Structure prediction request, 252 residues.
Amino acid sequence: MQRFLVFLSVVFVFISVPSLVFAQFKKGQENYSRQEMSIHRNMEVAERYYNEALQKLESGSRFGSDNSYIASMHSFYPQTSAYDADSGKLVDQLMQYAFLYDTEEDPVKKSQALVNYNTFVKEHLMDINVLFMAYSLSQQDASFGNVAYYNKIIDILETIIVPEFKKGETPADAFRASNFGEPTFVMQSLGVEPLKEESYEVSPGEHYRVYDVKNTKTGEEYPLFFDISIPMKAMADKAALEKGKNPIVPKL
Prediction:
């Protein structure tokens, strides 16, 4: 009888442990699924508002101002599926499209390269580094866009990224960066050069990057703070979506 009870206990363990593991795994999948749904829903909303503002900006709609359209696009851009926190990578991709257009001899492929270029610029118009490159290329070749149009957006976007009331000398007064390329743009606008940098997390979801900078004219050195929570959250959201695509199956 005692042996029989021991046998039943062993059988129960072998049955219950896998069941418990898979129950926890299923719950984890459900949590990730809800998180993915929330991220995708936010992306859809952001892309709708971004594209609506872009259409009004391009058409010169009289129902708003260019400033309001660009401010709206800049706020929604980091939540779109096209967004990438790495401005350098985006500029490289833009240059590849421009190079293909310049060098392609096949008319069909050349036309497609320009379509890809223009689509890419529209998707990343609120990345100041992409915008400046598009502006520079349009000065060389009108096929790459309207110089006056890009220049107007640059002027407005600069007031959003580097507002006059911001000093950035304390965390409370930090510049709010929408990607990792904006701090460089801000420092160039302020006429300072970075000496060293450090990133830290104050609380979950609240990230800062502080640069020790030097004024290129006066030689004065001081700290310059940036709130980088937006690109950090965007990276976390994309990582969550990738994890959802490739779930980890528990080993028994």
User: Anything to note?
Assistant: The longest helix spans residues 2-59.
